[in-house]
User: What shape does this take?
Amino acid sequence: MKDVVSRCPIEETMRVLSGRWPTLLLYYLKDGTKRFSDLRRDNPTVSHRILALELRKLEEAGIVRRTAHAGYPLRVDYDLTEPGLKLVPLIDALGDWWEDTEDDRASRASSTPETSLDTAA
Amino acid sequence: MKDVVSRCPIEETMRVLSGRWPTLLLYYLKDGTKRFSDLRRDNPTVSHRILALELRKLEEAGIVRRTAHAGYPLRVDYDLTEPGLKLVPLIDALGDWWEDTEDDRASRASSTPETSLDTAA
DNA sequence: TGTAAATTACGCACTATTCTGTAACCAGGT
DNA sequence: ACCTGGTTACAGAATAGTGCGTAATTTACA
Assistant: This one.
């Protein structure tokens, strides 16, 4: 997603949430503060570069807060900001929608093609 | 977004909605039935190939219904299915969230660095 | 009347752009 | 020297856009 087409808030939101990781990170951060390495363990398939980039994107979007602690082997904590916390139930709602409409969505394709055979008047 | 990491419904949902077009198409289809060329006019920056692919993706996800009319220069109508209609308010909620938290998100970075020195001194 | 052109919704092949991963390297602290 | 978190450099994969072709039928125009 390079650029936005409209300044529509939905598009802006999707620009941040699009992709495989953002919602997953949100999900893991629901549980509370996590460190960089925790998040890597939480999902091992993300490369360390991408995790850093995604976290930064979320941080810049104001959804995630990064806290660097001085001392010892360097320690950085990540947790959700207020807006981030407010976003969580909305994302959960999408998951619920997916489950609730499962059957309904599965029966697509044929609907009521009553009009579909009229050869135009 | 190649593959899913978990079978989490949120991830499944995001797989369908990720990208610039899906939510935009949902938005335009809210108004009712549209033809392929209507959707192209609605937003001229999408290429015909991508529009076709995106519509098919949404159709396969059971969000959009495609109705092909026989005859004449071929005519295809697109509209939202029941699940698609149910999805609309959820997406709107994301847009509202974006607007409502605008100020909050803008003031990220510094939060409550009680436990640490943000920039590491 | 014959023939070319337009329309609509694509599919295909090719190119351009962007994303993601690997690996290596850097910084601060012990 | 080693750890954690992060960045840069360079692939390689994926995604998006362009242009051409096609189906059936109507229309443009000589």
